[in-house]
Structures are given as C-alpha cells and as structure tokens.
C-alpha cells in the first residue's frame, strides 16, 4: 500500500497562513469535492479554530463541525486536541475533558490527534480514555523539537508508552519545521521497528526542509503524511498535496490520489485566499528557525507584542533570549501553550533589561508544575527567583483541579441551552459569553431583517419567508433561518 495523505487545508493551513480566519461559508461548498478525493482523513477542527470562530468570526464552531460532517460522507474528520488543555490555554478538570471529547465525537470527529506541549503523557490520559470510550480513533502525538534531552530513543520510548495507553496510531508533530530529512528517516525507521501501529508525520515548511523530510520518511515506511492543497501550502503551512502526490507517482509509495481532482481544489482555494489577504502572515521560508527554533506564527506574535510596546528594535534581542528562557525552563517544545509562555517571558526579559524581573502568571504556573513535568530540570536559580520555596506539583496536574461543569452550568444556563454551548463557555468564558449573548439577541440581525422575520411569522406564506431571508447578507440569512426555526417551534408554524 502506498503512502496515505491527510489534508490540513480546513484547519492548520489557514491557521498558519491566514490567522485562522477562513469562514465556514468558504469551506462548505468545496467539502463534497474534497470528500471524493480519497484522503486518509481531513483535519477540520481543533487548534485555534474553536477560539477564532467564537472570538472573531461570530460562528459557532460546533455548528461548523456538524455542517462539515454532513458533507464529508466517506472521509474521516480529524481534530487537534491539546490533551488536558483541550483547546484553551490552561489545564481543565477531567469532567471538562471527558464531556468535550464525548460531544466532539457526537458532532462529527472520527480521529483525535492528542498532544501535550511538554510531552508529559500524564496530560493525555483522560482524553485518550474518553476518546476510546466514545469509539474514536486515538492518535497519540509526540511533539518534535531539538535539545540536548530530545533524542530518538526518547521519542521511541514515548511512542511505546502511547501505544500502551491505547493509541491507535502515532503522530510525529514537527510544528516548527525542525525535522531534518535524515533524522526523519531514523526516527520513523525506529518507530516502525518498535510499535505495531501506523505512523503519521506532520511537518511545517517553515525551514524549507519539510518536503525532503517527507521523502525520507516515506522511504522509511511512514504510513500517512500531512499535506495542504497547494494554494494554501508552504510558508508556515504544510507541503503541497499535488507536488507530494506527483513525487510518489509510479513508485511503490504511490498515493493513488488524482492530480486533476486536486488541481480543481487548488483553483477553488486560490480564489478563497484572496478574500483573506488582510490576514496574510509571514509566509516566506525562514531558515533562521534552524537556529532560534521559533515557529513562524510565534514570530508574528512577538512582532505584534513589541510593536505595541514601541520596542520593535528589540526583536533580535528577543530571538536571542528565547533559547535561553527555553533552557531555563527545561527545554519545552515551542507549541501552544509553551510557545506563548516562553515567548512572552523572553519579551519581558528584553524590555525590562533584567531577566525575570517581571514574570507572567503562566511562567510562574509552569515552574510550579501546573502544566506538567518539563523535559529537563528547570534552572534552580530561576526557580528560586520566581517561586522561592513555594509548592511544586509533581503529580498529574489535573489531579489538583476540582470539577468545573456544574458551576459553569449555574453561571451560563440562561443563554447556553445545549451542552455544546456550556463547553464553549468553560473553555473561553468571556469570549463565549459575548457570542452567546449576541446569538440570543438575534445574532446581530439588523432591524429591517427582524421586522421581515416578524412578517414571515405572521402570515406564514413562502413569499414572506423568502422576503425575510433576502433581507440580510449570507451570515444574517443563516441566522434568520435559525431564529425563524426557533420561533416556529414555539408558535406551531408548519411547513
């Protein structure tokens, strides 16, 4: 069997290139065509998509998932889950993780790619159990990075533990584009010789090495690789699907995907991308990541922070400080949320001219063990300066968290009628509350549209219904139908 391909266009690709701003209205029309291609899976959810949908797009991420599931009838849908962080930036109690996974499966997720920012596998246990219980495929994930303590032997050991935990497959997650081609060959070879589950490789093109790493990984026997449709590939995204498919044509590794079908998808997303030019990031190849190891998306955040402080001239100093902070903190991989913790602390160190003069609450929590065990010991001098003789958690962090759902239900029940709404609120309280209030008030419908709906509700004629729906733009029309549907259920308006 040839190499299989997971498409990331609807999640990681636009998250990496377009600040996660692609709307559902640009995903749904092309979904049936993507479903016909024969991808191993399509990544459509997780990462930053949940937060961004609520915060910036005024979209319900659960509704997006349900709509996509209706259109992907044959291709499994996949999401990226941050273990005990779920989709947020802190650890959540076990009841939150369990309910989230249950609802994600109910709404359409088939495959969970579950990772932890510091590779503390204790932080995956609850999510893995919940996904297995719900009948989903669990992909245990190893975050790849480079440091004195991150060795091939360590990654193989973690893979064995993930399989013992219940993982159905293993993913090597190279979020910064640091994986050298020959290292890819070595790691995949040793994983294939050690664990009897499929191995998947996820790389970003930031350093310019990803395509070469894919070739060597395929030669070593990797089962699945992540690609994006070419019009949303490369830069800080994944390698282009079409080029990878062409590379392995007429070889034992041939994917079996059709280039003409993929070209049609590329033409579609090329037009879609034009709508989001305002959100284009730094999409060039940055070989500097091989030295400072800072992912492209993280650099853009650093630039934003420094500009807000009028200190953009300190960018080079910050890039030099990041490896030092990372070493102090025990070499965590730079992936959400540790990339934000390390990056923000490096900015503060540079701005104040004294290392750790000001410390974020997240840095303090990390040192106290609230994110899990770091890959290497934290600097004793830094630990003493920041937490003194304070308590350090050595057990699984979530064991110290009380259940959260019942309290949240009491806080938000008036505007959160579903379990999905409740989970949105628990993960992002302020953002979700604003969204739920906005939706409860008619989803921002203009007065004329509300009046038109009232007319439609009054006489029930198809003409009046059509008039109501034509009164707003696409997103308002969708909201209008939902509002009208809720009113119909109350007033007995039958079709």
Description:
The chain is α/β, with parallel strands linked by helices. Helix 10 links the parallel strand 7 and strand 8. Helix 19 packs across helix 20. The longest helix has 18 residues. The N and C termini lie far apart (51 Å). The C terminus is likely disordered.
Strand content: 5-15%
Order of strands across the widest beta sheet?
Answer: 1-2-3-4-5-6-7-8
Low-confidence stretches: 446-455, 457-495
Instruction: Find the structural class using helix and strand composition.
Output: alpha/beta
Q: What would you call the shape? A: globular
Quick recap of the structure?
51% of the residues lie in helices and 8% in strands. By secondary structure, it is of the alpha/beta class.
Give me the secondary-structure topology.
Elements: E1 4-7, H1 9-17, H2 24-27, H3 31-35, E2 41-46, H4 49-57, H5 61-71, E3 77-81, H6 94-107, E4 111-114, H7 125-133, E5 137-143, H8 152-165, E6 169-174, H9 181-194, E7 199-203, H10 210-219, E8 224-227, H11 241-247, H12 259-274, H13 289-292, H14 296-308, H15 315-328, H16 338-352, H17 361-367, H18 380-387, H19 405-412, H20 419-427, H21 429-440, H22 447-459, H23 462-469, H24 474-491
Parallel strand pairs: 1-2, 1-8, 2-3, 3-4, 4-5, 5-6, 6-7, 7-8
Features:
single chain, 495 residues, alpha/beta, 51% helix, globular, disordered C terminus
